[in-house]
Structure formats: C-alpha cells, structure tokens
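# step 3/5: fold
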Amino acid sequence: MGTLCTKLKNTHLVGLVYLVYLVGFVGLVDLVDFVDFVDLVDLVGFVDLVGFGWLVWLVG
C-alpha cells in the first residue's frame, strides 16, 4: 500500500511539473507572439509614416 501511495505521489509530482512546464511554454509562446505582433504594428506604422512623408514630399 505504501508503494502505491508513493507511486501516486510521484505521478502527481511529475504531472504538476509537466503542467507548470506546459503553462510556462504556452506563456512564452504567447509572449513571443505578442512581441512579434507589436513589432509588426510598429513596422507597419513606420512604413505608413515613411510612405506618407514620401507622398507629401512628392506632391509638395
């Protein structure tokens, strides 16, 4: 009976570690996606700004 309890406890611990790892990994992926998204928005904004400035210069 004692070995069964120990085995269950170890399985639970492994499950917990796996869960923490999974949540951490998903969080990391979300963070990377968010940073990429922010960079993309910044890049698009910059390109629009440069394009607009070039258009104004061309028209002016």
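# step 4/5: annotate
The helical segments are 2-59.
# step 5/5: archive (pending)
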